[in-house]
Fold:
Amino acid sequence: MSYLPYALAGWLFVVGLYGVVTSRNLIHLVVCVSVIQSATYVLLLAIGYVKGGTAPIFNGIALGTKAVDPVVQALTLTDVVVSVTSMALLLAIAVEVHKRTGTLDPDELREQHG
Amino acid sequence: MTRRLRTGLFLAGGAGLSALFAWGFAGLPAFGDYHGVYGRLLNRDALGQTHAMSAIAAVTFDYRGFDTMGEDFILFASVLGVALLLRQVRERDVDAGQAVETSDPVRAVGAIAVPAFFLLGLFVIAHGYLTPGGGFQGGVVVAIAIVLLSIAVDYGSYAALVRKPLADLVDGLGAGAYVAVGVGGLLAGSAFLESFVSRGKIGELTSSGTIALLSWASGLEVAGATLLLASEFLEELLARRQR
Structure:
């Protein structure tokens, strides 16, 4: 009977958001976005956890053994893929920004473009 | 907006958000106190219905097979975007001959690591429905094995292998193969992505019907996509270094 994993998910989300808001470097900002996304992994896996349950892979264990929810695990897989794709795109955009403006600081970017 | 104002706004907003989270989480069942219906049903029936030992693989490539197709194409589209962005802004091509310095110890480790990773990746793809793993996980490992070639052999031959043909082709082929397997279900007279090959005997490598085929298709797609991402960023780094 614990709510700690949920609290961890919430904390990861808020702390990642704090990083995004205060970031002085676009690469750092992208990493912070991925911290926010990892909050969703923790939340999904925590929701599907069954106390005392094993992994839902019935290889060598009998069918009917108490196992955790496979749906949220598959969703977490999707989540990881989406997180990778968005990180790749954001990093590519950061490369382009640096090439065009010579800086990665969001504040300096604003000054340059008014 | 000054930094101070922005941080202040965040502190107010973040406190509100945290309060909302706390309120929402308090309404969830406690950790480990699971009441879901789908998870229980799948753990009971997935093995009998799909012959895949891993219920996660059954969900990914069978029950949610259509969603996974979308996931494949999200990856495809984003890699396309990265390639377009980076290739367009690259000022010059890399002089591959002297791009990466490598050494004999690195080559020696590479000679072991490259085939080992490659084989491990194929193993993970092939056993995705029997053990933890599958196309997405194995595809990344396969791609990393090929990326290691850039330091284990030399950048020139790596770039010649990957640059245009291999990565683009494998990426497209994997995405296409996923749809082709889906259409196979239609041609066999049932629904899109419905398994149309024999489910086989539980626990064997040839079991689980189209789950195996879709796992391989995703493996190809992910390997191609990861390879493309890694090589585009690597090429960009080297192009800048040589400037």
